[in-house]
UniProtKB/TrEMBL annotation:
Record-linked CDD domains: MFS_MFSD6
Name of the protein in question: PPP family 3-phenylpropionic acid transporter
Keyword Oxidoreductase: no
Domain Major facilitator superfamily (MFS) profile, chain residue ranges per copy: 34-409
Main location: membrane
């Protein structure tokens, strides 16, 4: 082999190395840019949600002067609409094969629907607008998560590190928008919501085009799942425990103002509550491995029930703020443990169906039931009585969780 050939070969490989380094740098730069887009997008989405929904019940009650039953009906529309609308948006996204375009359009429509709330004081118009808002909003998180999961799987990224910015956006929003509402009036929550959703729709155009859709075969899976006693029992547990957790988002702001808190105080309380979830989600996997899923579920549900009954006793405002960190247990631990339990319990070929049913029962039916009947209770009694109702439901869920644990222990023995 001649010296000149060796030198040429060395130059060739060096150029390849330089070219490879440039390509690698470009890929890293693109990956970083996309991650910034994802982080900013999730921050905006949850900033908008956090600025509207915790204060919406306060607006309807204090500004529009609707009754407790009317507030409960309006706030309970969203979870019912979402049960039917989420699968529909999934079908549209799959059929068009353009999830990014669908997301951009629904973000704009969601922002417009939220803005329209500021133009009326009529109860029946609020009912229609709530259904319209829920219809478009129900597409946002599922399609966003689908695009994000597909992306992180391709680049071997971390979904949690992106989704975490949604929790941060929510926590900052409830404090910031609460302060703005205190200065400029509660109407500002609709303006902020609309502006933020329009900005998010602009960012959505820069998300990756690809999406990953999980096909849900309800017809094939439901008949098999309903024949599993433990799965059915866990659905009831989810209904009883998750229902109050989600309904709390609608009534907590009203509770804070009823016991003497300000709108800024509402934002501060939600900031503590939402901010406490991330640390517990970070340790959830290790705790589940060490103590077992059902023990973690029982612990988180018990702490949640204690929190609701504590609010029923109308403690001082400072004590309410201090106990908002209990949400880290009830949400940060319960959600990962419950999701893993459902996936482990269901046969492999119907896991997606099982998760879909679990989400519909907890996020949809449970949230609707507690929000609607919470409004009926509020009509006659007070917000503290609503939390007494939440506490009773949650402790009933704890009792059924103990029953489920005993069933599993007998099966193992």
């Amino acid at each position: 082999m001649s010296l000149s050939y060796v030198l040429q070969l060395g130059v060739h490989y060096k150029l390849q190395e330089i070219g490879g380094s440039k390509m690698e740098f470009a890929l890293k730069k693109e990956k970083t840019s996309l991650k910034v887009v994802f982080i900013s997008y999730y921050f905006l989405i949850f900033f908008g949600i956090g600025g509207l929904f915790p204060l919406l019940s306060v607006y309807l009650s204090d500004v529009v002067k609707l009754s407790g039953t009317q507030v409960g009906i309006i706030m309970s529309i969203s979870p019912v609409v979402m049960i039917f609308a989420q699968p529909l948006w999934g079908i549209i996204s799959d059929y068009t094969q353009q999830p990014r375009l669908v997301l951009t359009i629904t973000l704009l429509c969601t922002g417009i629907a939220g803005f329209l709330f500021s133009l009326t004081t009529d109860y029946y118009v609020f009912v229609l607008l709530s259904a319209l808002l829920a219809f478009f909003q129900s597409s946002l998180i599922p399609i966003s998560d689908s695009i994000t999961l597909n992306y992180v799987q391709k680049v071997h990224g971390d979904y949690g590190s992106i989704r975490l910015w949604g929790a941060i956006g929510f926590a900052i929003s409830v404090l910031t928008v609460g302060r703005l509402a205190e200065v400029f009036g509660l109407h500002v929550i609709f303006y902020v919501f609309a502006i933020i959703l329009v900005l998010a729709s602009y960012l959505a155009r820069y998300l990756p085009k690809e999406s990953q859709t999980m096909q849900v075969r309800l017809r094939d899976g439901v008949s098999q799942l309903v024949k599993m006693p433990k799965f059915v029992l866990f659905l009831v547990i989810t209904f009883l425990i998750f229902g109050p957790i989600y309904a709390n988002n609608f009534y907590f702001g009203l509770y804070i103002t009823d016991i003497g808190g300000t709108l800024t105080g509402v934002g501060l309380a939600f900031l503590f509550a939402a901010g406490s979830e991330a640390p517990f989600m970070k340790v959830a996997k290790a705790w589940i491995s060490r103590f077992g899923m059902l023990h973690i579920l029982l612990l988180s549900a018990f702490i949640s029930g204690v929190r609701w009954l504590f609010y029923f006793m109308e403690p001082p405002l400072g004590a309410v703020y201090a106990t908002t960190v209990a949400q880290g247990f009830s949400v940060g631990l319960f959600i990962p443990a419950a999701l893993q339990y459902v996936r482990d319990l269901a046969p492999v070929h119907v896991r997606v169906t099982a998760v879909s049913i679990y989400a519909a029962v907890g996020n949809g039916l449970g949230s609707w039931f507690c929000t609607f009947f919470g409004g009926l209770i509020l009509e006659t009694y007070t917000t503290s009585t609503v939390y007494g109702f939440f506490g009773l439901l949650t402790f009933l869920g704890c009792a059924l969780t103990l029953l489920l644990r005993n069933i599993e222990q007998k099966e193992r023995s």
